Amino acid sequence: MTADPTATPVQPESAPITLYIDADACPVKDEIYRVGARYRLKTWVVSNSFIMIPQSPLVQRMIVDAGPDVADDWIADQVRPGDIVITNDIPLAGRALKAGGAALAPNGRPFTEDSIGAALSQRALMEHLRSTGEVTGGPKPFDRNDRARFLQALDEAINRELRRRR
Asked: 110: domain range?
């Protein structure tokens, strides 16, 4: 098959930014909906069970089969350069970065190429400690400071991508 010389190639910069929420345990869904609406961004809410979403043509629900990493796999297969994934799942964040997207934790911590390796190593260490019976505690309770940091980080990520496209 030969390419049509008159066809205009689709550049990644011309594709709209899409937000993907790893939604099953995401505490900032409402904030994401509001920010997505403000910027007019398509937002995918991905889970393995029904989750209420706003009635908006910008917000779509994807219910995937139950099972380990099924939602993560769906999100990772969709992410394109410039998209933003909101997740606590470090391997999914790494896959989003590898695809050219951005990844944010719900507490506002951005995952970056520089930080993802250390985050994956720490995750593996903590899993190993838990498997030996070590009590490691859990994450600190989510609070309004985390919510504020997340809103700022999401706004910064969107604006960084918009500037990059100009």
From this structure: 15-165
Burial readout 106-135 (b: 16 or more C-beta within 10 A, e: otherwise): bbbbbbeeeebeebeeeeeeeeeeeeeeee
Number of domains making up the chain: 1
Within 10 Å of residue 158's Cβ, how many Cβ atoms? 20
Question: What per-residue confidence (pLDDT) applies to 44?
Answer: 98
CB atoms within 10 A of CB 85: 28
CA proximity to 71, closest of 94, 44, 53, 43: 44
The model carries a pTM of 0.81
